[in-house]
Amino acid sequence: MPDASMLILYVDAPRAAATFWSGLLGREPVELSDTFAMLPLRPGLMLGLWSRHTVEPAAAAAGGGGEVVFGVADPAAVDATHADWVARGLPILQSPCDMDFGRTFVALDPDGHRLRVYTPAA
């Protein structure tokens, strides 16, 4: 089976989305245009930001239909990331809480994609 090499999110404005994601991830885009941007997530895995107005075939789904999930080291890191993202102005859908799978919270990016941060339950 082939390895996954890119996660693509459909966005309203790729340049603006790249600015947001670059600030959030601390990584610069390796490709940037009016219709598509790409940033490295880790070696071998890229984040593509494709204009929902030019994606082919056209996509009916908008943000919020799934989640981009970030695993962190421990519950304190969940809370610290939450504080950082609140300071950055990200809308918070779910404040930090303990769930069956661990400590978590959910924020939104400017295009309405859900961003979940979690650490597994001990």
TrEMBL record:
Stored PROSITE patterns: VOC
Superkingdom classification of source: Bacteria
Span of domain VOC: 1-120
Protein name, UniProt field: Drug:proton antiporter
Organism: Siculibacillus lacustris
Lineage: Bacteria, Pseudomonadati, Pseudomonadota, Alphaproteobacteria, Hyphomicrobiales
